Structure formats: C-alpha cells, structure tokens
Amino acid sequence: MEGESKAEKKLVYGDWGYVLDDVPHLTDYLPDLPTYPNPLQDNPAYSVVKQYFVNSDDTVTQKIVVQKNSPRGIHFRRAGPRQRVYFESDEVRACIVTCGGLCPGLNTVIREIVCGLYDMYGVTKILGIEDGYKGFYARNTVTLTPKSVNDIHKRGGTILGTSRGGHDTLKIADSIEDRGINQVYIIGGDGTQKGASVIFEEIKMRGLKVAVAGIPKTIDNDIAVIDKSFGFDTAVEEAQRAINAAHVESESVENGIGLVKLMGRYSGFIAMYATLASRDVDCCLIPESPFYLEGKGGLLEYIEKRLKENGHMVIVVAEGAGQQLIAESMRTMDHADASGNKLLLDVGLWLSQKIKDHFATARKKMPINLKYIDPTYMIRAVPSNASDNVYCTLLAHSAIHGAMAGYTGFTVGPVNGRHAYIPFYNITEKQNKVVITDRMWARLLSSTNQPSFLSKKEIEEGTRKEEVPQTQLLDEGNSRANEKAEEQLEHNGPVSNGSI
Ligand SMILES: Nc1ncnc2c1ncn2[C@@H]1O[C@H](COP(=O)(O)OP(=O)(O)OP(=O)(O)O)[C@@H](O)[C@H]1O
Ligand SMILES: O=P(O)(O)OC[C@H]1O[C@](O)(CO)[C@@H](O)[C@@H]1O
Ligand SMILES: [Mg+2]
C-alpha cells in the first residue's frame, strides 16, 4: 500500500468567517498555460440555456443550518462549465478507471464521461483502463466511444472491470505519462480516492499537464461531505425485496423470524434506510450502534417480547454490526483483502445460530422458525435506477467541466444539493457514519420500537470518544477549517485576507 497523501490546502478567507476550501488548479504549478474559449459557447443545445456557465466566484456552502451570528464557514468551488478552458478538444487524451467494489451506476458514469467529453467538448480520444489501478501497468487499454458505451447504463457492474489492491503510484504515473494521457477520471470509494490523491501529487511533482478527477463511489454511503453516494438509492430499493421476502416468510409461520443481512462495513446507512423505507422491520443492527444478546435489555429479550406480542418479526443487520461480539465469542484471525480492508466475520450466520440456540433451550419452550436471507451482492450488482442514473450524469458532467477548466486533484459531488469540487483530503480523512445521536436514528428507533441497547450515559461517552464525523445528517459542522472560521470571527470580526 502506498503512503498517505501530503496534500497542501488552499484555503481562501473572506468576510464573516467565510472560508473557501479550494481545489488545486494546473496553473498552481504550470502558471503560463494558455486558455481557450469553451466550445460549449458555440453549441446550439446549450445556447438557449441562460446562465449555463458558472460564475468563477460561485461557491457552495457546507453548512446550511445557521444561526444569526454564526460564521459563514466552509465553502467549496461550485462545479460546472467555465467560459474558458485549459485544453483544446483535439489535445485531450482522457482515461477512465473503476476501482473497489461494485456499485449500481458505475456504467452510467463511464457512459456519461465518454458521451459528455464527446458531445460537449468534441473529445474523441478516450481510453478505458481495465481491472482497476493495476490495469494502468498490467493490462492493455480499451478505446471508448459513444457508440461502444451506448447501452451500458442498462447493465450492472462495470464494463471496465475493477479490483482491490495493486496501487503502484510510480507505475501508474509512468503509464499516464507514456500514453500521453492528460485527463484521468477515477471512479471509486475512499480507498480509490486516497489512491487518486497520491497519483495527483506524483503528477504535480513531475510537472505534467494532467488533470486528475475523482468520482466518489460507495454503496455503503461512507464518503464524507457529499450528500449521498450514487447507487445508494438503488441498493436501498433492491434491499426492499429481501426485507419483503423475510416479512412474508416470518408472518406465515408461528414465531417466525426473518433475518436479512445487508452491506455496510463501517457505516450502516443501507440497513438504516432500508429499514425506514420498509416499515416491516422490528430491529435494525448497524456497526455504529453496539448491541448485546443476553440479559435484561438485550437483543434476545427483545426478540422474545416481540414474538409474544406479534407472532413474528423481521431483523435487518448490517454486515459490520456486532463484529466485536463475534470476535469475543469465537477465536478469530485478522484477515484483510488486497486493499488492506479488514475482512469481516459473518454476522448473519452467527446471529442466526445464537438466536436458534437461545430458543432451543428447554427452559424457553418457545419453538421459533428462523429464515436467514443474505442478498449482499444482489443489491449492488444491479443497474442503477432512474434517479441514480440522473445523479450519475451530473457527477460525470461536473468532473468533465472541472478537468476541462484546469482543476485537478479534486473529487466531485453534491453538497447540500449543489454539485461542487472538493479537495481529496476532505473525503479521505474521515468516513461518513450513521450518527446515533442524530434525529434520523431516533426516527428509526421509533419506527422499529427496538431498544437502543445503550444507556444515555453510554451514548454520550461513545460520541465523545470518537469525533463525530461530518455528515449531511448533522446540523453541526465540525471540520477543522470550520472551527478556524469560528475562531477567526470570534477574535477578529469580519476580516478579508483572501481573493474572494
Ligand atoms: N491509502 C491508499 N493509497 C493508495 N491507494 C490506495 C489506498 N487505499 C486503497 N488504495 C487503492 O484503491 C483501490 C480501491 O481501494 P478499496 O479496495 O479499499 O476500495 P474503495 O475504493 O474504498 O471502494 P469500496 O470500499 O467502496 O468498495 C485499490 O486498488 C487500492 O490499492
Ligand atoms: O467482496 P468484496 O468485493 O470485497 O466487497 C465487499 C465489500 O464491499 C462493500 O460493498 C464496499 O464497496 C462493502 O459493503 C463490502 O464489505
Ligand atoms: Mg472503501
């Protein structure tokens, strides 16, 4: 595994605690690059759209819930087309790579990068890198054209293939340089964006005119700052089918229990949203909310109560939930995948067995009928739904406009509904997690009526121990720069020492 990125921050301060957390630009290290008029200016399809071009000063605020005296806080550069670009159409040699696990919508993003570059900017030289990062140096490339990608959004997976591990920065940068590639579109999760960040640093060190753009992908919705990751809605929708099946099975037998395991390694968003959407779920277990089995207030007591009340119940468990409990009850070895991600113990099977064992004891005299459904890969191997397809289009277009405008070392995504260019470190330093002290988790608890499995004191201590992550679900921003903005406002009042 390569080292972590040593990214420099470009913070620009404005009035009333305004901070622009800006992304790098090619001119930061190649100051004399020529610019050209954006070819979209002559495109009849766009000429009717008033204000199609983004004002160069437009920024997107990270914090939208504010008080009368709160500082303006962190902002990101707004995504979209600029009047002037740093590449001529026939100069562009773009490449696209997909890394990490699958996610609905990967093919749509690939399609829209190819078609967007072609239709909006007249770019015809686009290469696909096969099988993730290692494809840069271990595989041949494929030529991508609007024709070759025309139908791919209707398919799940990625036509380019993907992989974990194999990130060799120097070999990747050599490949980019040798092939004359000058725009690199990298689609992947937190690990992939860390990889993109170190590729950008290497490209910058070599002084190459190469724009590196990341498109965040994660079925787990564990990428910070952005509102939501593409494919997430599709996955939640697909998970409904498993939950429905669990419900039908459980209510058709005496003391039926339907147990569904869903993805979510460190973040339980899929389980939480699938539970909230379904309304048939009686208990949702996620990695962020510890639980225990035995004794008063434990899971087994709750199951017994629910079966007595209702005759059946549905449990949804995220794959990363209860890992500590399983490790305590089994002798386990630490295993990791090729990217260094910890391999999880199967909470679904373990929990099924624990529940069966508990109710099988003579003392209980309560025969149960448990059906375990594991749709894990089924929810991510499907094509993206309509709303994810539109979202993927916007992500692809934002990335293209940013690269054409000379921005580099950035990732794209919606922040409070507006697409923005976000420096890599914002999304690689922290993971987005469900905050169990947030109102959304309270909504879930009131929908399932499950116990929290924690005392008030434990919740408070738990959230203090781990810094609360920045998420779209929180009212309070907590990034370092936001704190800096608050400090600045407190000590100096409204000062302006930046260019905006
Ligand atoms: N710190 C890092 N530095 C450089 N490359 C990395 C780093 N972490 C991961 N990578 C590379 O990024 C690629 C994808 O990483 P990983 O398998 O962790 O998936 P991911 O992008 O996090 O996606 P997901 O976890 O959502 O499936 C791999 O090729 C891996 O080698
Ligand atoms: O089996 P794979 O491909 O490593 O993927 C499994 C992991 O990928 C994820 O879907 C993240 O992309 C996790 O939820 C899951 O643990
Ligand atoms: Mg990851």
From TrEMBL:
Residue positions binding Mg(2+): D190
Q: Which reaction does it catalyse?
A: beta-D-fructose 6-phosphate + ATP = beta-D-fructose 1,6-bisphosphate + ADP + H(+)
Localization recorded for this chain is: Cytoplasm
Q: Where is this region: Disordered?
A: 458-500
- Biased-composition ranges, Basic and acidic residues, are 458-468, 477-490
Q: Where does ATP bind?
A: G101, R164, G165, G189, D190, G191, T192
Q: Is Signal among this UniProt entry's keywords?
A: no
Gene Ontology BP terms: fructose 6-phosphate metabolic process
- Enzyme Commission number, as recorded: 2.7.1.11
Which pathway does the database say it acts in? Answer: Carbohydrate degradation; glycolysis; D-glyceraldehyde 3-phosphate and glycerone phosphate from D-glucose: step 3/4
Q: Which UniProt keywords apply?
A: Allosteric enzyme, ATP-binding, Cytoplasm, Glycolysis, Kinase, Magnesium, Metal-binding, Nucleotide-binding, Transferase
- Provide the cofactor list for this protein: Mg(2+)
The residues the record assigns to binding substrate are T218, I219, D220, M263, G264, R265, E319, Y377, M378, I379, R380
Site entry (Important for substrate specificity), positions: G191
Is this entry keyworded Cytoplasm?
A: yes
Q: How does it assemble?
A: Homotetramer.
**Physiological role:** Catalyzes the phosphorylation of D-fructose 6-phosphate to fructose 1,6-bisphosphate by ATP, the first committing step of glycolysis.
Q: What is this protein called?
A: ATP-dependent 6-phosphofructokinase
What is the originating organism of this protein?
Answer: Ananas comosus
